[in-house]
Amino acid sequence: MMEKMIIGRYVPADSLVHRMDPRSKLIIIFLFVCIIFLANNFTTYVLIGIYTFLMLGLSKIPVRFLYAGLKPVLWLVLFTLLLQVFFTKEGSLLYELGPIKIYEEGVRQGIFISMRFFFLILMTSLLTLTTTPIEITDGLETLLHPLKKVRFPVHEMALMMSISLRFIPTLMQETDKIMKAQIARGVEFSSGPIKDRIKAVIPLLIPLFVSSFKRAEELAIAMEARGYRGGEGRTKYRLLSWNLSDTLQILILVILTILLILFRS
Amino acid sequence: MRKTVISLENVSFQYENQSNFALQNVSFDIYEGEWLAIVGHNGSGKSTMAKLLNGLQFPQQGEITVCGIGLNEESIWEIRKKLGMVFQNPDNQFVGTTVQDDVAFGLENHGIQRDDMVFRVEDSLKKVKMEHFLNQEPHHLSGGQKQRVAIAGVLALRPSIIILDEATSMLDPKGRGEVLETVRALKEEDSLTVISITHDLEEAAKADRIIVMNQGEVYREGSPEDIFSLDDELIHLGLDIPFSIKMSNAFRQKGIDLSKHYLSEEELVNELWTFRSKI
Amino acid sequence: MDISLQNIEYRYQANTPFERLAIKDVSIDIPNGTYMALIGHTGSGKSTVLQHLNALLLPTEGTVFIGSHEIKAKQKNKNLRQIRQRVGIVFQFPEHQLFEESVEKDIIFGPMNFGVSEADAKVRARLALKQVGLSEEILEKSPFDLSGGQMRRVAIAGVLAMEPDCLVLDEPTAGLDPRGRKEIMDMFYTLHKDRNLSTILVTHSMEDAARYADQIVIMQQGQVVKQGTPVEIFSSVPELVDMGLDVPEVVRFQRKLEEKLGLRLEKTYLSIEELSTAVAELLRGAPV
How many other C-beta atoms can be found within 10 angstroms of the C-beta atom of residue C18? Predict the structure, then answer.
């Protein structure tokens, strides 16, 4: 189950979207989330759809992979659709069966809202599928840099994010190891009454906490030994490069925005 | 007269909430270009020593001088540039998300310009033979590889002293071999001073000089030959003696006279050969 | 209790794009009372094999027999807990599994999970603590206030208190100093003899394999490549070296000496005592 989920996963490939600067990708996603609310009729939704699929095509992420990964989310989209269809009571009555009444506006709203939801998921997954977590962190750090003036700890936040990313796989391995050690000592994690299962988590969580604290302490010592003393006076090894294609991509989005404003009703 | 790079004078240290001193009245010098092994069982004070040398802890009494600079709160950053450390747990010192980011971490901290950084990252990874793993993530590396990356991270800062704080104790024999070989080659190439804190006597046997720690004090100091002539005393200290010593002791017991106490395996084989031809 | 692995195969994340074959066609017999050393590089599949010994992993092909239990691939397997009670595993760095507020509670955790009464478990805890060489004084202490070496011993006591018929040891002395290493290994050997346990030791140390094991299994790339008594295994040095494995120091020394003296001793010796006696005899008795 978890293995098939693709939300938050990076899929390496050499595509135009992969090569884009994480900053431009973050800006585009941010703008996209805003302008999607401009769409309110058939034409505007088609425009958004064309744009989304264009970006998907450019990313070279296999459609089959996307479909398998997003299947669980599609159910949520369907659920949103049904919710709107059955509970909106505006416009002319289209269909009636006993207590169930379906109105024209309900169908319209349902389709639009679920489409909006669907496009949002596609575009945000596209960001994480084509950008490594560390690139996202770098992009965020640079974009949020101005916030330093209001004492927002931008550097510390970015460092925290990148260290967390670095240790996720380590902690997963550790969890697996401790789970197995406790199963060997007679703990049942996946069967028995729910009360017992909750209790079974304690022999897993406590060792995990203990070892994480130990790791954190050792890591802090190692960082200090390597000369870390806060963001002041630090240089950066990772380089972000803004290319023509990044500017073009943003331009395309601006054009889309203008079109949306023109065609919305 | 050899040049002293580190000197400890009557150093004592006590952890908070502990009644015993972790180190008591410790004095010794470390010379430029030597490989010094500090050995002792777990809890003998040898790891505390590493923390003091790098200014991660400060002694309550006594003085530590590194490259002519007295170690104190102000000078630690200067000293940390000259003295690199590789710790025991390969995972808990890997800061970067990839190999190259990790090597760059120390350089970023010291405000090195980017062009120089790129060069140094590549150069130091080449020295530890990890240049083909630039973008590899740590969980795909073996323990030995991670330790080599840690060494590269230290090298990139161009230190004159490198401290291995039980850096091989969590590795398998292959990883241990890789790491020691790497350090040995680097020591020759860049005339580094190496301080290796360890309880592996086979590793210590290859050092130029050994300091044996026991209960927070310097128990004995000398060449491997001097130290290994302590024999059973070492075992009492919770340590071991190298194989060739055990072997020569056994021969001596069986009435075979050997010329000197400590012999490497090769020497011992030669000696036995001579013995045979004399009969 | 006899254990037998018959043609087992294990694939991680089977039927996904991330599928990976870990071990293939592995057959190992461990008759009751055997001390077996399992040797191989990191990634050779030995820890996958180890996890089959108490059903932490179930084979994707083949059959595992543990005592009277039979675990077949692709079948619903029940009563895994009974197996786990009889096979105790000491994982690498076992101190990482400690979690209770006192040493005593941590040691009785395993036995009580398997239905031993609290009173009985406490008796076992005292015995186990003695076996690992710790005093009863620490029973009430928090395991997290102990030294690293003591924590390791408490964790081992927690496995011993389950009173398994078979002990599986995964590098149980990693990171310990020479004295600690020797004490722990000797302790396991005594237990093995006294309780007639089956012991499976996963190790990188050829010295330990030579000193303690009756049988040695060598694994490489997910397969068993060699199996035999220590003398059989260590008699063919070049083969081991080809596999990138170490040879015990005594054996290495014997070969060096034989080469220098231009002769061959009649057998491979696995201890300093045996080898020195043989060489001394040779040197004294040998005419030039």
Answer: 9
Q: CA B195: distance to chain centroid?
A: 4
Angle at C210 between CA B207 and CA B165, to 5 degrees: 30
pLDDT band at A2 (very low <50, low <70, confident <90, very high): very low
Distances (CA, A) of B198 to B165, B204, B207: 7, 7, 11
CA distance A63 to A72: 15
The pair of three-digit structure tokens given for residue B124, joined into one six-digit string: 């130091």
Contacts B90 to A, Cβ<8 Å: none
Strand partners, A93: A103
Residue with tokens 């190790």: C203
**Interface contact C253-B269, CB threshold 8 A:** yes
- What confidence score (pLDDT) does residue B276 get? 82
Chain A residues within 8 A of C89 when measuring between CB atoms:
181, 184
DSSP B237: T
pLDDT top residue among C110 and A95: C110
pLDDT over 80 (residue C158): yes
Instruction: Give the Å distances, CA to CA, from A68 to A12, A78, A127, B73.
Output: 17, 16, 18, 57
Which domains are present in chain C? 1-78+207-242 (3.40.50.300), 248-283 (no CATH)
Helix%, strand%, coil% for chain A, nearest 5: 70, 5, 25
Cα angle B94-B97-B99, degrees, rounded to a multiple of 5: 70
Q: What is the DSSP string of C195-222?
A: TT-EEEEEES-HHHHHHH-SEEEEEETT
Please, what's the b/e burial string for C231-245 (b: 16 or more CB within 10 A of its CB; e: otherwise)?
A: eebbeebeebeebeb
Asked whether the predicted pLDDT for residue C67 surpasses 80, the reply is yes
Cα–Cα distance list, C83 to C28, C55, C244 (Å):
18, 7, 35
Query: If contacts are CB pairs under 8 Å, which of residues 71-110 in chain B contact chain A?
Result: 77, 80-81, 84-85, 87, 89, 91-98, 100-101, 104-110
Classify domain B4-94+160-241 by CATH number: 3.40.50.300
Task: Tell me the three state secondary structure of residue C66.
Answer: strand
C-alpha C138/C-alpha C104 separation (Å) is 8
pLDDT given for residue A4 in this prediction: 53
pLDDT in tens, C177-215: 888 899 999 999 999 999 999 999 999 999 999 999 999
Rounded distance between C-alpha atoms, residue A7 and residue A65, angstroms:
12
Q: In what order do the strands lie in the sheet with C20-30?
A: C20-30, C3-12, C61-66, C69-72
Q: Is the pLDDT of residue A175 over 60?
A: yes
More confident residue, C12 or C77: C12
Q: Which of A31-35, A105-109, C123-127, C161-165 comes out lowest in average pLDDT? A: A105-109
Per domain, the residue ranges of chain A are: 16-131+242-263, 151-225
Contact map slice: A 210-239 vs C, CB within 8 A: 210-211
Comma-separated ranges of CATH 3.40.50.300 domains in chain B: 4-94+160-241
**pLDDT tens digits, one per residue of B253-278:** 888 888 777 678 888 888 888 888 87
How near does any CA of chain C get to the CA of A68, in Å?
12
Model confidence at B5: pLDDT above 90 = yes
Mean pLDDT to the nearest integer, B228-253 = 87
How far apart (Å, rounded) are the C-alpha atoms in residues C137 and C129? 10
The residues of B assigned a catalytic role are 166
Residues C224-253 have pLDDT tens digits of 999 999 999 998 888 888 888 888 999 999
Q: For chain B, which chains pass the contact test of at least 3 CB pairs under 8 Å?
A: A, C
